[in-house]
C-alpha cells in the first residue's frame, strides 16, 4: 500500500497469485477521523455551529458512472467521484485515488484534508479529491487507461487550471496523469496546468515524484534536534513501501539513517542491521513484493509497529494506527505520510505515551507543494531544475513546521490541533474577505 496521496498501492501486474490479507484497519471511517480533528480545532477557536457546518460540507460533490467492458467480456460499472471541498483560497486541488474501497465518504474526507493542507503550507489552492473504486492490482494497464479516460470525460466540466487541478494519489501515478491530461486536451486543447504529477516528458516537474517523501524528511530534520536525534542514530520503519514511503526511505538513508522495517499490502519485513532502501525500491519497481525481499525476515503486519526505532512513517492507507495497536508502537516519532493514518483514539494513546506525531495535513504536504510548483511552471511554460524545486520545497515545509510548532508550544496543544487551527483560520479569513461568511 502507499500515499498522501501517492501512498502505496503502486499498480502491479495483475493475477500475481496469492495475496496476503491486508493489515487490519480501524473501523472508524476517514470522515469520522477528519471530522474529529476538525472539531477539536474548531472548539479551540470557539467557532459557532453554523460556521462549522459551512466548513465541514463540500462546495460540490460529483458522482459518475464508469461502465467499462473488461478482458472477461463483461461490462463492469465503476463509481467515480470528484469532491470540491473549499475554494476560498484558490482553485480546488487534490489527487485522484484508484482503490476498491473508494467511496463518497472517503473522498469527501480526503477533499477536506486537502483544504486544510494547502492552507497550512500557505499555497494558493483550495481542497478537492477524486477517486474511482477500481482495483489496479487486478486490472490490466489498458483497462486502467480506459477507466482513466472515461472518468476524465465525465468530470472535465468541473476541472480547469483555474477551477480544479488533479494529481496522483493511492493507485495512480504519472502515467495515469498523462492519460488524464491527454483526454482533457482532446476536449479543451493542450492544457498541462489542469493536471500535476505528470511525467517529465509531458511538462511534469522535476522533483514531483519524490516530493511527498522528501517533505516528510524535511519534517524529520526540523523535529530531530528537539528529540535529541541525529540521523546516524535514527532507525526508521516504513509502513507502505509505495511512492511516498520508498522516497522517504531513500532520502532518510542518504542522510545516514537506517531502515529496520518495511511493509506493503502483501506483508512486512524486519532487519535490525538495516534494510537497503535503494535495493528494496528497485526490487518493488521490478514487480517484487516487500515480503519477498531477500536479506530481511518476514514478520506479521502488526509486528511492524513493535520494531524498536526512532521514527515510524505510516505511508499506507487511512486508519492503520488504531486503538487496538497504538500502544504497541515502539517509535519516538510518527511522521504521517498517508492521509488520516491515525484514528482519534490512537492519537490520544500516542499523545499520552509522549510519542511525537507530525500530522498528515502538514507532514505529507510536500506532494501538493511541488504540484503547486508544477502548475506555476506550466502556466509560465518554463521549467525549473530539480535543485531549485527541492530548495523551494524545503523553504515552504520548514516555514510551515516552525509556524505550527510555535503555535502548539504557545497554546500547549498537540501539533495536529495547532495545524488544523492554522489551516482553518486561513480559510476563514479568505472566506470572510470574499464576503462568503
Ligand atoms: N495526493 C496528494 C495528497 O494527498 C497530492 C495532491 C496534489 O498534488 O494535488 O496530498
SS elements, strand count: 12
Q: Widest sheet: strand order?
A: 9-8-7-6-10-11-12
Mean pLDDT: 94
Q: End-to-end distance, in Å? A: 40 Å
Unreliably modeled segments: 1-5, 8-21
Largest sheet: 7 strands, mixed
Q: Spell out which ligands are present.
A: glutamic acid
CATH top level class name of the domain at 57-198: Alpha Beta
If you compute it from the alpha carbons, what radius of gyration comes out, rounded to the nearest whole angstrom? 20 Å
Shape summary: globular
Portion in beta strands: 15-25%
At the fourth level of CATH, the homologous superfamily of the domain at 57-198 is Leucine Dehydrogenase, chain A, domain 1
The structural class is alpha/beta
In helices, the fraction of residues equals: 40-55%
CATH architecture of the domain at 57-198: 3-Layer(aba) Sandwich
Order of helices and strands: HHEEEHEHEHHEHEEHEEEHEHHHH
| CATH fold title of the domain at 57-198 | Rossmann fold
Enumerate how many helices there are, as a single number: 13
Amino acid at each position: 500500500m502507499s500515499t498522501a496521496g501517492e501512498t502505496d498501492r503502486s499498480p502491479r501486474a495483475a493475477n500475481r497469485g496469492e495475496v496476503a490479507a491486508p493489515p487490519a484497519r480501524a473501523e472508524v471511517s476517514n470522515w469520522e477521523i477528519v471530522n474529529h480533528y476538525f472539531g477539536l480545532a474548531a472548539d479551540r477557536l470557539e467557532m459557532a455551529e453554523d460556521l462549522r457546518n459551512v466548513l465541514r460540507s463540500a462546495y460540490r460533490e460529483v458522482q459518475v458512472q464508469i461502465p467499462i467492458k473488461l478482458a472477461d467480456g463483461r461490462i463492469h460499472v465503476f463509481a467515480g467521484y470528484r469532491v470540491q471541498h473549499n475554494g476560498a483560497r484558490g482553485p480546488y486541488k487534490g489527487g485522484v485515488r484508484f482503490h476498491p474501497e473508494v467511496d463518497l465518504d472517503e473522498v469527501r474526507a480526503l477533499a477536506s484534508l486537502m483544504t486544510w493542507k494547502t492552507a497550512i503550507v500557505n499555497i494558493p489552492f483550495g481542497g478537492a479529491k477524486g477517486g474511482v473504486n477500481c482495483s489496479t492490482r487486478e486490472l490490466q494497464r489498458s483497462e486502467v487507461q480506459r477507466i482513466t479516460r472515461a472518468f476524465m470525460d465525465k468530470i472535465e466540466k468541473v476541472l480547469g487550471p483555474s477551477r480544479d487541478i488533479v494529481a496522483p494519489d493511492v493507485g495512480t501515478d504519472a502515467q495515469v496523469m498523462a492519460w488524464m491530461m491527454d483526454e482533457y486536451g482532446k476536449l479543451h486543447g493542450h492544457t498541462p496546468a489542469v493536471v500535476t504529477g505528470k511525467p517529465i516528458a509531458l511538462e511534469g516537474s522535476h522533483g514531483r515524484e519524490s516530493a511527498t517523501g522528501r517533505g516528510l524528511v524535511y519534517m524529520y530534520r526540523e523535529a530531530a534536534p528537539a528529540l535529541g536525534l541525529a540521523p546516524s542514530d535514527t532507525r526508521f520503519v516504513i509502513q507502505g513501501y509505495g511512492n511516498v514511503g520508498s522516497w522517504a526511505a531513500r532520502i532518510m538513508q542518504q542522510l545516514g539513517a537506517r531502515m529496520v522495517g518495511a511493509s506493503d499490502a502483501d506483508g512486512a519485513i524486519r532487519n535490525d542491521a538495516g534494510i537497503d532502501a535503494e535495493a528494496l525500491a528497485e526490487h518493488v519497481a521490478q514487480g517484487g513484493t516487500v515480503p519477498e525481499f531477500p536479506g530481511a525476515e518476514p514478520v506479521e503486519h502488526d509486528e511492524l509497529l513493535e520494531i524498536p526505532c526512532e521514527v515510524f512513517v505510516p505511508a499506507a492507507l487511512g486508519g492503520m494506527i488504531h486503538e487496538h495497536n497504538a500502544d504497541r508502537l515502539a517509535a519516538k516519532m510518527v511522521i504521517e505520510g498517508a492521509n488520516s493514518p491515525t484514528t482519534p483514539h490512537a492519537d490520544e494513546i500516542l499523545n499520552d505515551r509522549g510519542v511525537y506525531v507530525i500530522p498528515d495535513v502538514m507532514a505529507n504536504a510536500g506532494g501538493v507543494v511541488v504540484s503547486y510548483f508544477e502548475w506555476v511552471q506550466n502556466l509560465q511554460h518554463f521549467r525549473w531544475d530539480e535543485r531549485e524545486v527541492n530548495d523551494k520545497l524545503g523553504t515552504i515545509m520548514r516555514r510551515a513546521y516552525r509556524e505550527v510548532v510555535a503555535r502548539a508550544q504557545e497554546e500547549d496543544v498537540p501539533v495536529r490541533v495547532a495545524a488544523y487551527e492554522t489551516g482553518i483560520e486561513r480559510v476563514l479569513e479568505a472566506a470572510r474577505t470574499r464576503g462568503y461568511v
